[in-house]
Amino acid sequence: MPFKFFASHSQRTILLLSLGMVSLYNITFFSKIFTFAMEEKNYFIALSAPFILMLMFICILNFLLLLTHKKAFRMVVSILIVTGAMSSYFIDTFGTVIDKNMFINVMQTDSAEVLDLFTPKLIIYLTCASALSFWVLFKAPISFSSYAKEFAQKALVGVLSLLMVAGLYMMVSKSYSSFFRNHHELKMYLNPAYPIASFSKFVYAKFKPKPEFKAIATDATRQNKEKKKLVVFVLGETARAQNFSLSGYDVPTNPLLSKRDDIVYLPNFASCGTATAISVPCLFSKFGRNDWGDDKEYFENAVDVLAKTGVRIIWRDNNSGGDKEIAKRMSDVVQYGGQGFDEVLLKDFQANIDARYEDTFIVLHQEGSHGPTYFKRYPDSFKKFTPTCDTQELDKCSHDQIVNTYNNTILYTDYIVNETINLLKANQDKYDITLIYFSDHGESLGENGVYLHGLPYMIAPEAQKHVPALFYFGDKTKRESLHVKANERFSQDNFFHTLLGLFEIKTSEYKPNLDILH
């Protein structure tokens, strides 16, 4: 009988599942362990890690499946097979860490963005995992004893394997403790344990009681001057500073902005997070990155403060992930959903300004350089750097092709920002004008096997945290003042206070030391 090996009690299924997880689902995990171990000549770790992880999975699965029996047992095993395969695809292909924030990103992703991630490779993973899962669920000849006997057996094997892991750890704790303390990020690649734990945290955060929504800056006042202020914020997407020629990059990705002498570029600017779902709410918040958390979303943001003091808000959004509910209390909001190029953001720009003469804040939220379909982010006329990677299957492209395609997105952003400045400049006689541009987060393009973005901030490379930032002023004095300190370190933590300062809003929430322009 071909499945004779499977035709026994559930322990064989647990053993095979553990073996499959170690050998198929943790390729990236072991790749990183072996790399670090070889660099440190720690051969014991390299040789023993697979065996110890196997014991750990046997222990965990026995306790996880402790209360299951027959159909429930098959169902949980099937779910683990599919979950592990899906996680394995993203971890091994893009170097993704599937933490709680990644689930937040997934929940806020639109259908177009999901389709961009569908590749033949993902379909193969899904098909194979689904077929195996279906077989385990309905066809696999797994024999079961009584519920009591199965429970006792799983409890016994779980305890024994736990004791073995504990005993081994005590014997080698000196070597293992120092190794994993130095490389604590390794646990984030443990599949499917870390994704499942992260999903549990995500579900808990979703269903725990929500805090009461809190108003801020209730004491805010603003002086109504004769010459009105017009501030445009171009919120970029997935642009990393190292690919901006304004940052010293030797590829001419900023041919238009580089020629301008009326902008100030900030070369040392950091993001609040490594994904839009974190960075965008955080940068508009009064809370800095170190204080940011899910509960901080239940406070009013900078847009609310401006609006309550009488500033007119215009929000135009071409990001496929939307405005992350920052503008949900505003009335003049148009969502384009990333279905076209970013030029759509400038549609009716002048007409909107001419509609009413008052202090105005305009947000233009780009689709920018969002991957993996970089080739979809710019018109053909901006396909300057070739050869390009005209597919979402990044593993089929060379590093140079991926970088060229990404650089074309930056070239297009250069055009968008420059065009916005020109439109804004046409209003400088009538308004006190300012433009701010920076990206929400950066991007990895395959360096050290990491692609896209969203890694936990603690372990994320600089490419995902160091973002381009620039200011344009109609007032030459402001420009010269900022030039003096342009090389200082700034971050998205400064944005809330800089924005309040630009509109001269007085409130106890305003901190002059965090205002870039103060």
TrEMBL record:
InterPro entries registered for this protein in UniProt: Alkaline_phosphatase_core_sf, EptA-like_N, PEA_transf_C, PEA_transferase, Sulfatase_N
Q: Which residues cross the membrane?
A: 12-31, 43-65, 72-91, 122-142, 154-172
Membrane topology of the entry:
Multi-pass membrane protein
Specify the protein name.
Answer: Phosphoethanolamine transferase EptA
**Compartments, as annotated in UniProt:** Cell inner membrane
The record's annotation in NCBIfam families points to: P_eth_NH2_trans
Q: Which domain of life is it from?
A: Bacteria
Can you provide one Gene Ontology molecular function annotated for this UniProt record? phosphotransferase activity, phosphate group as acceptor
One Pfam assignment: EptA_B_N
EC category name: transferase
Q: What processes does the entry annotate via GO biological process terms?
A: lipopolysaccharide core region biosynthetic process
What PANTHER family does this protein's entry cite?
Answer: INNER MEMBRANE PROTEIN (PTHR30443), PHOSPHOETHANOLAMINE TRANSFERASE EPTA (PTHR30443:SF0)
Tell me the organism: Sulfurospirillum diekertiae
- Domain named Phosphoethanolamine transferase N-terminal: which ranges? 58-205
Record's keyword terms, sorted = Cell inner membrane, Cell membrane, Membrane, Transferase, Transmembrane, Transmembrane helix
- List the SUPFAM superfamilies hit by this protein, alphabetically: Alkaline phosphatase-like
What are the EC numbers?
A: 2.7.-.-
The answer to whether keyword Chaperone applies is no
> Which Gene Ontology CC terms are recorded?
plasma membrane
The record places domain Sulfatase N-terminal at: 230-504
